[in-house]
Amino acid sequence: MFASPDAGVRPRLRDQARERLRAEIMGGVLAPGTLLDDDELAGRLRCSRTPVREALSDLGHLGLVEFRANRYTRVTVPRREDLVPTLQALGLLFGGVVRTTIPEFDDRRRALLFRRLGLLLDCMAETRWEWGADAVTPVYRSFIAECDNPLLAATLSGALDGLTYRLRHDDVRAALPWEHIRNGLVALRIAVDSRDGRLAERASSRIHLLPDPDRKDR
């Protein structure tokens, strides 16, 4: 998404700073709301302020950093009111991936993703299970890896961190209908097993709280 003409020669300081900060945000080292100071980050990352500022700008485009002019630059704070719109945005991209990808599965890929979805469902059945990008992102990335449409795969991949991060609100368990979402995951697993792309798209819509694409308005 942020590649440059010389990216194949050597990683730029901007790229290195961005990936280091992205990993720290996604890994929870930099918590939501953490203030990001150019000088402090430059010293810690052992580079000048310019690549740090460029990296923060890139992360702002990803939705991981937010800016308020003359006030602060900080790690994005997920908002409760964004939970459903964020999940729906994720579903619009994911639905296209599963619709086009699942009918092309061979036995190996079908078995792999069937098993991965089963593991996620088992985790959700645990009373202490909590939503987190570390739990669900591997599922999305598994489908991305199997997608033969490079533009569609790149679009979802580029948006994935920013969208899943915004779902890390403390009230996410209370704010979303998890039994409904779980039923959608069961349907997606069935669609994977039967290589049914249309059923998979409908299941994805259910998981992500979108209207059923096969339902006609009356």
UniProtKB/TrEMBL annotation:
Keywords: DNA-binding, Transcription, Transcription regulation. Residues 11-78 form the HTH gntR-type domain. InterPro entries: Tscrpt_reg_HTH_GntR, WH-like_DNA-bd_sf, WH_DNA-bd_sf. Coiled coil: none annotated. This is GntR family transcriptional regulator. It comes from Curtobacterium subtropicum.
